[in-house]
Amino acid sequence: MFKRAGAGNAKNPSESETITTMVVFPNDTNPMGMLHGGKLIQWMDTAAAVCAQTHAERIAVTVALDKVLFKNSAKTGDIITIKAKITRAFRTSMEIFVQAWARKVLSREKYLINEAFFTFVALDDNAKPVEVSKVKPGNTEEKLHYKQALNRNNSRIN
Fold it and tell me: Which of 29, 43, 103, 121 is the most exposed, fewest CB within 10 Å of its CB?
């Protein structure tokens, strides 16, 4: 019943890995000069969407966001680097792990500010779910994320 699109051979996570960089401007912050959490989530969601759509070779939409951890704050002038990498593909959905780091321009200090798991579903031209290619993890970290993704997916479904 599901249409196949981009559901060919298994793909390595590096094929769709997405890295984006932003600068925290004053309009991105609260009165304390700290980056709004919602703005950061928006940037992370966009990076995850690019990763999911690259993997699926289709438009993909966010269906879940879990385990959001705000570890540190970023401030006006900081450079934000966001890395999105697919952990596993299910039938029509994909889990994307996203991490965000802040870097102080003058000191070059870099630190993790957030990480989260996003779930996307690939859609056909009629906005119906389509099957996606499987993920073939390569290194030890990718294999661990791949294995753990099944448990997270089962928790989301139940």
Answer: 103
What is the domain partition of the chain in residue ranges? Answer: 3-152
Question: What are the pLDDT tens digits along the chain (158 aa)?
Answer: 444 445 568 999 999 999 999 999 999 999 999 999 999 999 999 999 999 999 999 999 999 998 788 899 999 999 999 999 999 999 999 999 999 999 999 999 999 999 999 999 999 999 999 999 999 999 999 999 999 999 888 887 76
Rounded Cα–Cα distance for residues 118 and 81 (Å)? 17
**Domain 3-152 CATH assignment equals 1.10.287.70:** no
Residue indicated by tokens 């004053």: 26
- Running DSSP on this structure, what letter comes out for residue 29? B
Class of residue 21 by CB neighbours under 10 A (exposed 0-12, middle 13-18, buried 19+)? exposed
Alpha helices, DSSP H, located in 16-136? 37-56
